[in-house]
Specification:
- This protein is an alpha+beta fold.
- The protein folds into 2 domains: about 130 residues, no CATH class; about 230 residues, 4-Layer Sandwich (Anthranilate synthase), CATH 3.60.120.
- Helices cover about 25% and strands about 35% of the residues.
- It is built from 9 helices and 24 strands.
- Strand 13 and strand 14 form a beta hairpin.
- The radius of gyration is 21 Å and the shape is globular.
- It comes from Geodermatophilus africanus.
- It is an enzyme of class 5 (isomerase).
- Its EC number is 5.4.4.2.
Length: about 425
């Protein structure tokens, strides 16, 4: 099932113009309708809506790929930058389960990009590139005032009981791992402003990808899949430890690297990604030992996987959305085996994930693009602009302790809470 909005503007010229001055991307965003994919100041931001697709069903990603291929092929493109992310671009936020959840694809009227010391602006339809940077965004509103938090689908005690049930099912041999998430509701005294949240997240988590699509925004540390030409890359994260102070911080880092429980969880996530990508690749490389990704609030075991896509054959011609559909959901956000883990999530979690933990990112008309996983995120309410829903999850394996897993979700909530409370 698909709902499509394609205004006449999208049949007009798409113009990409290199910029002499390098802008600060997040500073350009307007007060509403912003899309973002930014890491260490580079990436893409956009606003306005030239075309939109909302799609649900077992062929959701295939329908989206067909829609984008048809749409982009019919555009009159003048691309003077010719780099990944220039020319026509669609931003996407895909449901955790695309067969039952709604995935959103947005082609902005304006996209500003920055990569390797170069910058550009792309306009679609009746927008003058010269006017884009000359118009200052509206000022960010005053502080949102007091924040009030409420439990989502499960209160902490009930969620711990759910974790204990999952551990028992793992011990019984039904599966090896399941990722369980919980949600937290927040209401402010004044409307929440996406620009302020994105700016704070980017400042505190520069090594994460700061994303926003259709009201879902956050700072994800996990790169599901990047494609540049035939080159593919991914950053797998699984296994988490909190940060400490001084010598305690170093001890926590060493304990994470040495943890048999966390390394087993991490290995399952790497194996699931590699197994899904292998049929599409001529070469695929994954280091034997994980490293550490250190963020402001937590550390993760991390493995960077790289590969080269096949030139020929049915799978050699696969587009980025097909590849995303092949690797998602990984063990990092679902579990192992995938079917058993997904069924247990539906049985125990008690909430609709929507687009949380689903792929989020962008694709250009060449087929290049980047997708992360929508983690460390908040979904702004479209009914109450002063309200949002926060998400956090963790991998449950044999030996998982419910109280420790609850503490891990609280550490992950803190990423967005700090941005809200700043």
């Amino acid at each position: 099932m698909a709902a499509v909005t394609t205004p006449d503007a999208v049949t007009a010229v798409v113009t990409t113009t290199p910029l002499v001055e390098i802008p600060t991307l997040l500073d350009l965003l307007p007060g509403a309708g912003a899309v973002s994919w930014v890491r260490r100041g580079e990436g893409l931001v956009g606003w306005g809506e030239a075309a939109r697709l909302e799609v649900t069903g077992p062929r959701a990603l295939a329908e989206a790929a067909e829609w984008w291929a048809t749409l982009s092929a019919g555009l009159d493109v003048d691309d003077r930058a010719e780099v990944p992310g220039s020319g026509p671009v669609v931003f996407a936020s895909i449901a955790f389960d695309p067969a039952v959840g709604t995935s959103v694809f947005v082609v902005p009227q304006v996209v500003v990009g920055r990569r390797d010391g170069a910058a550009w602006v792309t306009t679609t339809g009746d927008v003058d590139p010269a006017d884009v940077l000359a118009t200052a965004p509206a000022p960010i509103p005053s502080p949102v005032g007091r924040l009030r938090y409420a439990d989502g689908a499960l209160d902490p005690a009930s969620w711990c009981t759910t974790v204990a049930t999952a551990v028992a099912r793992i011990d019984a041999g039904e599966l090896a791992k399941v990722v369980l998430a919980r949600d937290l509701l927040v209401t402010a005294d004044a409307p929440l402003d996406a620009r302020a949240l994105l700016a704070r997240l980017a400042a505190r988590f520069p090594d994460c990808w700061t994303f926003a699509v259709d009201g879902l925004l956050g700072a994800t540390p996990e790169l599901l899949l990047r494609r540049t030409g035939r080159e593919l890359s991914s950053r797998v994260l699984a296994g988490t430890a909190p940060r400490g102070a001084g010598a305690d911080d170093e001890r926590l880092a060493a304990d994470l690297l040495a943890s048999a429980k966390d390394r087993a969880e991490h290995a399952l996530a790497v194996e699931s990604l590699v197994r899904a990508l292998e049929p599409y690749c001529t070469t695929l490389t994954a280091p034997e030992e994980p490293g550490l990704l250190t963020l402001a609030n937590v550390r993760h075991l991390a493995t960077d996987v790289t590969g080269v896509q096949r030139r020929t054959g049915a799978r050699g011609r696969a587009g980025l959305l097909e590849l995303v559909g092949a690797v998602h959901p990984t063990a990092a956000v679902c579990g192992t085996p995938t079917g058993a883990a997904a069924a247990l999530i539906g049985e125990l979690e008690g909430m609709d994930r929507g687009r949380y933990a689903g792929p989020v990112g962008w694709i250009d008309a060449r087929g290049d693009g980047e997708f992360g996983l929508a983690l460390r995120c908040a979904e702004l309410s479209d009914r109450d602009p002063a309200s949002a829903r926060l998400f956090a999850g963790c991998g449950i394996v044999a030996g998982s302790d419910p109280a420790a897993e609850l503490a891990e979700t609280q550490a992950k909530f803190a990423a967005v809470q700090a941005a809200l409370e700043s």
